[in-house]
Design goal:
The complex is a heterodimer of chains A (344) and B (231).
Chain A (H helix, E strand, L loop, with lengths): L1 E12 L2 E13 L4 E5 L6 H6 L9 E6 L2 E2 L5 H9 L1 E5 L10 H11 L4 H14 L15 H13 L5 E5 L7 H18 L2 E6 L2 H7 L2 E6 L2 E7 H6 L4 H11 L10 H7 L4 E8 L7 H8 L4 E12 L2 E11 L2 H13 L3 E7 L1
Parallel strand pairs in A: 3-8, 3-9, 6-7, 7-8
Antiparallel strand pairs in A: 1-2, 1-4, 4-5, 9-10, 11-13, 11-14, 12-13
Helix pairs in contact in A: 3-4, 3-5, 4-5, 5-6
Chain B lengths: L17 H35 L6 H19 L2 H7 L1 H8 L5 H25 L3 H9 L4 H12 L1 H27 L1 H12 L3 H29 L5
Helix pairs in contact in B: 1-2, 1-5, 1-8, 1-9, 2-5, 4-5, 5-8, 6-7, 8-9, 8-10, 9-10
Classes of the chains: A alpha/beta (344), B mainly alpha (231).
Organism (chain B): Lentilactobacillus otakiensis DSM 19908 = JCM 15040
Membrane topology (chain B): Multi-pass membrane protein
Keywords (chain B): Cell membrane, Membrane, Transmembrane, Transmembrane helix, Transport
């Protein structure tokens, strides 16, 4: 169990004090994948670096299985650090070492005997699927392969916690999915607690059970990923969720204003489906039941989360006010999350 | 010996005493190599102190950084020829003499080690901070980070810097030679210039150039072998 209790961190800068982390309270259960999402500068990295004692909190407690990490020093702190694996956005591998020697580095630091180091490193290479690349240097590997080395290295000392600090942010979408799948696999196989720091809601949806949303140093929303996706409460969360649900039309993703301009008539409605509903013919039911209503599909997306499918659909309803309201009531009855984005 | 003048005076090879040329070359080589070993060791230690005490909280670090920084800056700015004269009493104590190659070593080392130390400090600062942080997050001690990350990750730069330092050191040995330290510089000055034997000067120059080329070549090869960043 990891517990952040009233954790704050202030820095003093030339322009006065800066609060990087503001009164954060989070509990993370053993064996879960917990996501922390926020834009850069939200304080996510500062927060998790405190777990490792790389940053000290100004106030508050950081409790890992009954130990207040913020109070550890010297060799106790170094021992604690060995129990936490960390992977990074830019991999942070030593270019001067081969794959095998990079993975063996934490073992060297923990003073594991040489024969055992080699054996353990080879096991890990198999685990992350890098057989045959043991003697390559990082410069000979692709981004995805480098992050696999990073993961193997982070697991070398059999940690109980793995921190992933934007570990997929420098990777392309396919490689990101590969790395996330690997994280899921090791979470299940080793019962490892994983903290996933990211600004990509996609990564959170794919692997996390619970998520905390951070904004300007504070946690503004926490809950199961499924719930947060279905009913985002805060503006920033809605933004993250809708970014994820808006289909990726490369860089010309339409903003709400553009949508409204393009479809000035009627009402624009966002439906959110989850689980079995995503498979029901709800839209065609609406069309049949309200034949006088013109229904156009503007955009849509379906995402697989750890708790099942989650879909969103933006529709334009043009027609009689009463009919629209009836249709909305029907949708509500079908337990579909509805949100009127624009009332024409 | 010869009394030819003009352009031809450079090519009177029968005027060259090859035996003394050989022994002078040997003196230059060992003066350079021996002081180089000391300079690399001393330079890395001083560079490490400068790097590790830089911007660290605590008055102890501040004072150490200031003292080492001052030492380095002073000895880096004294012209070599003046440094030799300045260090004569110390040389006398350390080497027991003020002439010959042995006597050149203290001033060679003291002038070049601070030069190399500054280079070393900047090479350490160029090591990826992310990698250092990764090692720290693995629970490495400061010593562990130095030996397992800092030194291996800056190895090609350390070698390239040592090569540059060695080459300027060869220049210094020649300068030291002119005031009695032996070696090719001494030979070129005494047997060449003072005896109006231009051929000796030319041959000594060619040998020094060859020595520089060889040092540069060996340095380049080692940089290439140790640098695994681009393949």
């Amino acid at each position: 169990m990891i517990r952040f209790k009233n954790v704050s961190k202030q820095y003093s800068t030339k322009d006065g004090g800066l609060t990087a982390v503001n009164d954060v309270n989070i509990e993370i259960n053993d064996g879960e994948i917990f996501g922390i999402v926020g834009y850069s500068g939200a304080g996510k990295s500062t927060l998790v670096r405190m777990l490792d004692g790389l940053e000290a909190p100004s106030t508050g407690e950081i409790d890992i299985n009954g130990t207040d990490v913020a109070k550890l020093q010297g060799s106790q702190l170094r021992k604690q650090r060995q129990k936490i694996g960390m992977i990074f956005q830019h991999f942070n591998l030593l270019w001067s070492r081969t794959v095998l020697d990079n993975i063996a580095l934490p073992l060297e630091i923990a003073k594991v005997p040489k024969a055992k180091r080699k054996q353990r490193a080879e096991e890990l290479i198999k685990l992350v699927g890098l057989q045959g690349r043991e003697h390559s240097y990082p410069s000979e590997l692709s981004g995805g392969q480098k992050q696999r080395v990073g993961i193997a290295r982070a697991l070398a000392n059999e940690p109980t916690i793995l921190i992933s600090d934007e570990a997929t942010s420098a990777l392309d979408p396919d490689t990101t999915n590969e790395v996330l799948d690997l994280l899921l696999k090791i979470n299940k196989e080793m019962n490892l607690t994983i903290l996933l720091i990211t600004h990509e809601m996609h990564a959170i949806a794919k692997v996390c059970e619970r998520v905390a949303v951070m904004d300007s140093g504070s946690v503004v929303e926490t809950g199961s990923v499924f719930e947060v996706f279905r009913h985002p409460q805060q503006e920033i969360t809605k933004k993250f969720v809708s970014e994820e649900f808006t289909p990726q039309q490369s860089d010309n993703t339409m903003t709400l204003d553009e949508l409204v301009q393009k479809y000035p008539e009627g009402q624009i409605i966002r439906l959110v489906f989850h689980g079995p509903q995503a498979e029901l013919p709800i839209v065609s039911d609406v069309v049949k039941r309200f034949p006088d209503l013109t229904v156009s599909i503007i955009s849509g997306a379906i995402h697989q989360t750890q708790e099942g499918a989650l879909g969103s659909l933006d529709l334009q309803f043009v027609g009689d006010e009463g009919q629209i309201n009836d249709a909305l009531a029907y949708l509500k009855k079908m337990r579909v999350g509805t949100e009127v984005i624009h009332h024409g | 010996m010869g009394n030819t003048t003009g352009f031809k005076s450079y090519f009177q090879f029968n005027n060259v005493d090859w035996g003394s040329m050989m022994s002078a070359t040997w003196e230059t080589v060992w003066m350079t190599l021996l002081s180089m070993v000391a300079i690399v060791i001393l330079g890395i230690i001083l560079g490490l102190i400068l790097y590790e005490t830089r911007n660290k909280p605590g008055i102890g670090y501040r004072i150490l950084n200031w003292i080492v920084g001052l030492f380095v800056n002073i000895f880096r700015s004294i012209p070599f020829i003046i440094l030799i004269i300045l260090l004569l009493p110390i040389t006398m104590k350390l080497a027991g003499t003020i002439i010959g190659p042995r006597a050149a070593l203290p001033s060679l080392i003291i002038s070049a080690a601070p030069f190399y130390a500054r280079m070393v400090e900047s090479y350490f600062r160029e090591v990826d901070s992310g990698v250092l942080e990764a090692a720290e997050s693995m629970g490495a001690t400061t010593w562990g980070i130095i030996t397992k990350v800092l030194l291996p990750e800056s190895k090609p730069a350390l070698i390239a810097g040592a090569t540059v330092t060695t080459i300027s050191l060869i220049g210094y040995t020649a300068m030291a030679g002119a005031i009695g330290a032996g070696g090719l510089g001494n030979l070129a000055y005494q047997d060449g210039f003072q005896a109006s034997n231009n051929t000796v000067t030319l041959v000594a120059t060619v040998i020094i150039c060859l020595f520089v080329f060889i040092v540069q070549f060996i340095g380049d090869v080692f940089v290439k072998i140790t640098d695994k960043r681009t393949l």
